[in-house]
Design goal:
alpha+beta, five-stranded antiparallel sheet, five-stranded mixed sheet, 14 helices, globular
């Protein structure tokens, strides 16, 4: 298509505008990268001594506050030299001054840092009265920090100041509730002359699920109805039987009910299903006289269980932060600790505009990992806020992701309606696989937002991250080989549609649970943190996923590895190591018998090389841990590969297609034809060729296995392949022939 780009709505995009856009994106590539920062971290354990004793705030910069109690007020120590405390009469409009007390910040106020004991309050003379209060210098490690009223929030009303305070939230763990409707027996409808058409409705909370309609007095369904419940599993499932009359929903008649508490259901903690039991169905109304002892004859055969062997997803699986089952007995061993210091942010965009033309942002950060949420305090009216708060999480699997959301607080004023929602400034995700154990990362991560007009930067979030390994050597060595999900997901898997529907139930349940906290974590915040990725077709994402598959394929391509690593080097040592390693793979234990009998030099040579490498790595690790000398730089922290995901120079038409609605809102036929041709050319050819290559390689492998039925044929074939590979990829120089 050349330089002819389309915006999807108004026809061809101007070529000059597209060139300007590309040049702007090229200039901003450096701004989109993660920058290394050098903060002055507090505490006793840091970059110089990562194994030393730790304090609760060793990954943040120490901030000193002036605290005044009993109602806790916090002031920045650097803002003034004198603290003035004034006592006024609140019963009068103008607040008549009763007394006043001044403190010299440098001389009259003591300093206290936990675990020092609390300073006793004192009486101070205020005119004709005395006031008991406590004044001291402290840091963010002080116990009163989470409930202090900070000076930057002085304009916030007293009833709304709670919305500015930091808070830790522990969301209840989630569990699947499986209601399997097997069959009904001796069901009676109100009209005895008509065959009942029965369906079942199961209700848990505000979620209702229905079975299909089955005919007869003994209907059969064998249908699963799955809900999501939160601990402590004290809710009740309401099961109602309806007789479908005249095909109209409002004419359906209730013919039986059953209520069952979750605590009374079978707790399934291993992969499998609960036993099918018969349950008596209660009539919707009392049909017998009170003196009649006969029971209602209708029964239902059902499997009622809480599936505690599953993990309930509340995040997208590619950004998941937890894979543990509900049952604690199925949790893997603790692997480590994730410690994060949220220092501050820079360059935030204004989110509010006041009537006087003033623009401001009241920012706070929400971090989520597992079922533990943390929220920093709100810094009022600053585009470069400083938080310096530290949080920690337990890590059970390193193939997880921690998510940060930066929000603008709109709950600082009393309003009659609840329409003021906290605005999302942006999100930052860090995969734990990009972090090395026991290493401190100090970085300034860009806050990137993808829009229809390209990738935009709304600020930078300054973080200090450390993954501390606390597991023993066995757990650490075997952790990469564990199943990612609990075994129930593999033995009795749920479909993708079921998993997605249940995820929305989990998100709704998390919103309800976190909204009950004090102060509440608002629904829009939880939804933005757990919001699923865009499911509409995206050429950019599809190309990125294909490239990811190619990368995985290249990792397992042994011939390419031999060509790039072994044959290209002039050192003879790696060639010998590769030959010996490939012999071990091809011949297995036969090789070791051959070495011990004929060629005993090679094992000794390999042992010497291995010991030398062990001593070299041991010396480097000793220098890092004991002397604090970094012998090699850690790999850079890259939360998002902009080049892989096509964000370094995005195609505007592809972004317009990605943000387009379904069905499409484009009215230009030329745009639709261009997108269809591009889909056929790029996706059709790539997917077709990729599937064809995979199918061909699988067929060749099957044909090869069928030919090697006898052991002698297998040995001869392995020997010939080994000789050819060693000769071609190690000792035959293609480059000389190509030059000639």
């Amino acid at each position: 298509m050349g330089l002819k780009k389309f915006d999807g709505k108004s026809g061809p995009l101007n070529v000059n505008r597209y060139r300007i856009f590309c040049s702007e994106m090229a200039d901003k590539k450096d701004d989109f990268s993660v920058k290394k920062i050098s903060p002055k971290l507090g505490g006793e354990r840091g970059i110089r001594n990562p194994k030393g004793p730790t304090s609760s705030h060793d990954l943040v910069e120490q901030m000193e506050f002036l605290y005044v109690e009993n109602q806790v007020f916090a002031f920045d120590k650097t803002k003034g030299d004198v603290l003035s405390v004034t006592l006024k009469d609140g019963r009068r409009e103008n607040g008549t001054v009763i007394g006043k007390q001044n403190f010299k910040v440098a001389a009259d106020i003591p300093f206290r840092v936990p675990p020092d004991a609390r300073i006793a309050p004192q009486w101070y003379s205020m005119g004709n009265m005395e006031l008991m209060m406590l004044v001291w210098f402290g840091t963010q490690a002080d116990e009163v920090y989470p409930r202090a009223w900070f000076a930057d929030a002085s304009d916030v009303s007293a009833s709304c100041v709670r919305n500015t305070r930091p808070k830790l939230y522990l969301a209840p763990r989630l569990c699947y509730v499986r209601v399997t409707i097997v069959s009904g027996h001796d069901l009676i409808c109100n009209d005895a002359e008509r065959t009942p058409s029965v369906y079942v409705r199961a209700t848990l909370g505000d979620v209702e699920l229905y079975t299909e309609v089955s005919l007869g007095s003994n209907p059969s369904w064998n249908q699963d109805l799955i809900f999501v419940a939160s601990e402590p599993l004290e809710e009740t499932v309401y099961i109602t039987l309806f007789d479908k009359v005249n095909g109209q929903p409002h004419d359906d008649e209730c013919i039986g009910v059953l209520n069952k508490k979750l605590s009374e259901m079978n707790a399934v903690k291993v992969p499998g299903s609960a036993p099918a039991l018969f349950y008596d169905i209660e009539p919707p109304v009392k049909l017998e006289p009170a003196s009649d002892s006969r029971r209602f004859a209708s029964r239902m055969k059902m499997k009622l269980a809480t599936d505690q062997a599953y993990h309930v997803f509340d995040e997208c699986i590619q950004y998941s932060s937890d894979y543990r089952a509900f049952a604690k007995g199925l949790w893997p061993d603790l692997l480590g600790k994730l410690e994060i210091g949220i220092l501050g942010a820079t360059g935030l965009q204004p989110m509010k505009e006041w009537r006087d033309g003033r623009r401001s942002t009241d920012a706070y950060v929400v971090a989520k990992y597992g079922n533990k949420w943390s929220r920093t305090r709100t810094v009022v009216g600053s585009f470069s806020p400083k938080w310096n708060e530290q949080y920690s999480w337990d890590v059970y699997d390193k193939c997880t992701t921690v998510t940060f959301g930066i929000f603008d607080n709109n709950q600082l004023a009393v309003v009659s309606s609840n329409t003021n929602l906290d605005g999302l400034i942006g999100k930052v995700r860090i995969p734990l696989t990009s972090l090395e154990w026991d290493r401190v990362y100090t970085c300034s991560c860009p806050i990137l937002v993808l829009r229809e007009d390209g990738l935009k930067k709304t600020g930078e979030l300054q973080l200090v991250v450390r993954c501390l390994c606390v597991a023993n050597a066995y757990v650490r060595a075997t952790s990469p080989f564990r199943w990612m999900l609990p075994k129930a997901h593999y033995k009795s898997p749920l479909s993708m549609v079921q998993t997605e529907d249940l995820r929305w139930q989990a998100i709704r349940l998390n919103c309800l649970n976190l909204a009950r906290a004090e102060p509440p974590l608002r629904n829009e915040v939880v939804l933005n943190m757990l919001r699923p990725t865009n499911k509409s077709f995206s050429m950019r994402i599809t190309n990125a996923n294909l490239e990811r598959l190619r990368k995985v394929g290249r990792m397992f391509n042994w011939c390419l590895w031999m060509k790039e690593t072994i044959r290209s080097t002039t050192d003879f040592q790696p060639k010998i190591i590769a030959c010996v390693a490939s012999l071990v793979v091809v011949f297995g234990w036969w090789y070791w018998i051959l070495c011990l009998a004929v060629w005993p030099v090679i094992p000794v040579y390999l042992a010497v090389i291995s010991l030398r490498e062990i001593f070299r790595l041991g010396r480097l690790e000793c220098n890092r841990l004991v002397l604090g000398v970094e012998t090699h730089r850690p790999p850079p922290l890259v939360p998002v590969d902009l080049k892989l995901w096509g964000l370094d120079s995005p195609d505007l038409d592809e972004l317009a297609e990605e943000f387009d609605t379904f069905p499409s809102s484009v009215v230009d036929v030329n745009v639709l034809r261009m997108r269809y041709d591009r889909l056929r050319r790029e996706m059709g050819e790539n997917v077709m060729l990729l599937l064809g290559d995979v199918a061909s390689q699988c067929e060749r492998f099957c044909a090869l296995v069928s030919l090697l039925d006898s052991p002698l044929a297998w040995i001869c074939f392995s020997l010939v392949c080994y000789v050819i590979v060693v000769f071609v990829y190690m000792f035959w120089d293609h480059r000389g022939l190509l030059i000639k």
